Amino acid sequence: MTQTNISKLPLFTAVAFLLLLGLAGCAQDEKPMKSVNDHFIDDEQPRSVNAFFNQQHANAARQDGMLYPAHFDGAALNSLGRQKLDLMFAGVERGMMQVYLKVAKDNAYRDREAAVNSYLTSKNIKSEEYALNFGDNPGVGASASDGLKGIEKQQAFADSDSGSISGSSGGSK
């Protein structure tokens, strides 16, 4: 071998060694790349907050307790009515459930009552667990006069000098 070939031999050996090390050495420690979104819960998994929302929906449906004409197709209970009843009887509740039929007391009224009874029976809810009532739920709503009193107080405050922002430094007169 010549002098130049011998001096290039260690360089060639070092490059070959590093190339083999690079190709073979890192393949065993390779981990799959993580997505930025891997820390989020899968959409299909239940979340604890959903139980809270479901209970709030049930509480609201129970507090209202009324079935309107929109909950019926003629005399038959429609999907909206079934959903409302399902919500009313979901979750934890104490005491007898009050269901109010806020529909016209016409020829179809008895059939609507029967449709509600039939649906609740199909859900294994006993007739002793609820009462069907005609008309408005007396526990829902507020008198408009209470709200109007508040408006009158606000107007009186706004009309007085004490309600003026552009007045003196805020002390009493």
Structural class from helices and strands? mainly alpha
Whole-angstrom Rg: 37 Å
Mean pLDDT across residues? 80
Calculate the terminal CA-CA distance, rounded to whole Å.
113 Å
- In terms of DSSP E residues, the strand content is 5-15%
Task: Give me the count of strands.
Answer: 5
Fraction of residues in helices?
40-55%
Main sheet makeup:
3 strands, parallel
Q: What's the number of helices? A: 5
User: Strands of the largest sheet, in order across it?
Assistant: 1-4-5
In short:
With 173 residues, the protein is mostly helical.
Structure description:
With 173 residues, this protein is mainly alpha-helical. It is 46% helix and 9% strand. The chain has helices at 3-25, 48-64, 79-88, 109-122, 144-159; strands at 66-67, 72-73, 76-77, 97-101, 130-134. The strands form 2 sheets. It has a 3-stranded parallel sheet with strand order 1-4-5, covered by helices on one side. Helix 4 (109-122) links the parallel strand 4 (97-101) and strand 5. The longest helix is centred in the first third of the chain and has 23 residues, at 3-25. The radius of gyration is 37 Å and the shape is elongated. The N and C termini lie far apart (113 Å). The mean pLDDT is 80.
List keywords for this structure.
173 residues, mainly alpha, two-stranded antiparallel ribbon, 5 helices, elongated
Which helices and strands, and how do they pair?
Blueprint: H1 3-25, H2 48-64, E1 66-67, E2 72-73, E3 76-77, H3 79-88, E4 97-101, H4 109-122, E5 130-134, H5 144-159
Parallel strand pairs: 1-4, 4-5
Antiparallel strand pairs: 2-3
